[in-house]
Write a structure and sequence with these properties.
With 378 residues, the chain is mainly beta. 10% of the residues lie in helices and 52% in strands.
Amino acid sequence: MASLSPRPTDARTSSRGIFFIQLLLVVVAVVAVYNGASWAYRTIRGVPPGEIEGTGPRLVVAEEELDLGRVYEASSHHHSFRITNRSDRPVTITRFDKTCECLGIAPAAGVTLGAKETKAFSTTLSLDQKPAAKGFREIAPFEVRFAAVYSADGRAEAKEVWALRATVISTLRATPPVLEIGTNSEKLQGIERAFRVEVADEVERVECDSHPQGDVKVARDEAVESPKSFRVTVHSRGTLARREVADVLRFFPVNRAGERLPGKDFGITGEIVPDVAARPKEIQLGRHPCGARVKEAVRLVSLANRRFRVKNARPDAEHLTVSRVEEERAGWLYTLETNVPKAGDQRTEVQFIVVDEEDGKEYAVVVPVRYHGAANVR
């Protein structure tokens, strides 16, 4: 009778089979885990899952084109770089993401690079340095990162990230950085303001482009040795015209060799009005519960010390009332009152019709009123 017990060779054969099956299952599991992790990693980074791993980025920029080296501080510095598509398929750049608004790139979107194609892009950089906490900072590192977001073959968007680097050499800075002239009357004969400009040691003098609205004079302040200092005086030219002032002065530092270094822009802000202005120019009532009665005062004054009268006051909302303070002898003082009708941020305004008693001209002075209504919670 044949024995039913397995032979030793059968047992060994069975064990090997089980071992190889287990090994195969382990390999399959490892591959599955790797592919899953790779897919997740590539999805998070925005790389299309169908792209072949290990082939490197599709879009490349030469490293030397990303290093600007030592550059002078300037409001507008121009640079160019080239992007190459290393793949064998067309790629369309849909946009550029940037870490700083100081960088402008052109063209900015909708650029298609064919297989192995290279295209040039131009950049405009604002290299204005922030003032140092102490003293005049002449050298500062600069870096701005940007990414080309692109798509290929209709797949999900991907991106390549680069960084533009430079060492910025500061040449001059103004105190204050923006010249605020405030609210002025067109009846005035002129406006004059002055501010100070500090320069680096290599700067011998400062020049300024002519300005259509005024005259600019730059003179060395001999009393200040380090850093070198210049006093800038700006005087309006001709008759003042009512407008929102948003002008720009461009200064050019000149080195000892007489060379003009890159220019820097400084702003002038303010407004020119017919004459009468409100104090304050805008009413901020703050946050109050709905239904609350809130009052605030506003005074109308002549900026050129002219005689005037207020013909009437027109609030643009029923819940806002305006009353003149009759006992006020020094001028035109009004009380504004509202009952905060609803929740949320609110804006209304009052229009005062003013008559200039010296020339008979009539004009409007508008005072915005802002407040926030808080919903009642029970």
